[in-house]
Amino acid sequence: MQRKINLLLLLFSLLGGGVAFVLGELLLDRRPYDLPPIVLVGIYFALVALCVSIGSVVAETISPKLNGQSWKLRYLGTSWKMLPLAVVLLFGIGTLTEFVYELNFGGIKPVKNVIMVIDDSGSMLESDPNNSRYEAARALVQQLDEDNKVAVVTFSHEASVVQPLIPLSKAENRQKVSDVIRSLVTTEGGTNISGALTEAMNVINEDGADRGAMVILLSDGFSQFDTSTELTAFVDRGIAVNTIGLALDDPSGSNLLQDIASVTGGQYYDVTDANRLGEVFQQIYDRLGDRTLLTERSDRAADSPYYAVVRILALILIGTALGLGLGIIFDNRHLARSFSFGGALSGLAAGLILEFGLNGDTVTDPMIRLLALLVLVAILTLFTYVVPVGEGRLSRKGRAAGAAATPADGFPPPRRNRGSKGF
Questions:
Q1: pLDDT at 413
Q2: Which helix (H) or strand (E) holds 245?
Q3: What integer pLDDT is reported at residue 380 of this predicted model?
Q4: Cα–Cα distance between 97 and 313 in angstroms, integer?
Q5: Which of 156, 190, 240, 300 gives 266 a disulfide partner, CB atoms 3.0 to 4.6 angstroms apart?
């Protein structure tokens, strides 16, 4: 066995990884047929296996430096037939690891209930004269998934529930919430944030279902509020309150909203122009996204060491499976071992890149995924220089064929005369 490198295989594998990246990003962006994340991630890694495997086989066909001429002459057809097995293997490993990644460790629940708490006090006539907050809220309702529930609370000097939690699984329910928001008007009165959050918690309690919840609080004012006592229920149940400060000139108002978000684990958004509320609601919606191996964690699991470890271990397993799949395609036990070890190491590197590189940005996150994918492929294909490889079939058929082959000296083995009994 020898330490070898096929630079053409490295190049073609990287090209295959690039093609897989483009197809995978289209898949994640368009999410055809509303496929669940488990299936999407499985297909994503199946595309990686398909494109990288095709590039590897083509490279070895042109320059068989790792498998040798005997593979090209006798087993190339078998390699093409085995390629779907590697694709199925990666699809299975991808779906399995994504399933584990989506499990809720430590009581963490994905956000399914969204309670919008909207300031309707008289000051809104100046800070939001065109009622942009209502349009932004309606747009959010249209974007939420079918398994979400939504409620609407308005407040001025008093708070009221204008729409209790309602599932969005039916189109008529979604339209109902939209109509309720459209009918809202600015009233007179002050800013009762305390009463608004009390009503929001009442809405959550009345639902009764053990589902993750999140509050979106929008206000342009300040009220007396004790964050050390009035947010206890939200903190104990892990319910984040995302706050939006609209045209806040008084620092006390923005400080209060920042404190509310900080104490509950939410995000604070400072908006000076009401016309930008749509962008802010879009950002909040994006942070509601499903927790996947390929995207940033934006829920309570964002800083969880459990999910960091699970993601990295998942990529190690995926890299190992990709290497094993290539070994199966080439029907070479030495390559299977080398690629598997290389895949484990490259999976570790890719997992670290994803874990510490993803930040939710629509521009940089795809680049992080591309970098992780290229590192995964590069280390895997170069590992044949670390773990020596040679010719060695995996299948029984290959071993039988090898046993029957003509010896290197060119002379056939002597035939045994079964008819001679001799002394």
A1: 52
A2: strand 240-246
A3: 96
A4: 9
A5: 240
List, for residues 251-279, the tens digit of each pLDDT value. Answer: 888 999 999 999 998 889 999 898 999 98
Residues 6+ apart with CB under 8 A from 259: 227
Cα 353-358-53 angle, rounded to 5 deg: 55
At 325 the pLDDT is: 96
Taking each helix axis from N to C terminus, what angle separates 364-382 and 7-30, rounded to the nearest 10 degrees?
A: 150
Token pair in block for residue 147: 């398994």
DSSP states along 110-134: -EEEEEEEEE-STTHHHH-TT-HHH
Q: Give the whole-angstrom CA distance, residue 387 versus residue 110.
A: 43
d(C-alpha 66, C-alpha 390), whole Å: 7
Give the amino acid at 171. A
Quick one: CA torsion of 342, 346, 351, 356, rounded to 10 degrees?
A: 150
Question: E strands within 65-199?
Answer: 111-119, 149-155, 159-167
Judge whether 322 and 314 are in contact, CB under 8 Å: no
- Helix then strand count (H, E) for the chain reads 16, 6
Structure token pair of residue 296: 């940033």
Q: Which stretches of the chain drop beneath a pLDDT of 50? A: 398-411, 417-423
Distance CA 50, CA 43 (A): 10
Q: Give residue 401's pLDDT.
A: 44
Q: What is the Cα–Cα distance from 133 to 139, expressed in whole angstroms?
A: 10
Q: What CA–CA distance (Å, rounded) separates 308 from 1?
A: 38
Q: What is the residue-wise DSSP string for 301-369?
A: TTT-HHHHHHHHHHHHHHHHHHHHHHHHHHTBHHHHHHHHHHHHHHHHHHHHHHHHH--S-TTHHHHHH
- Please state the separation of Cα 79 from the chain's center in Å: 32
Sequence letter at residue 278:
G
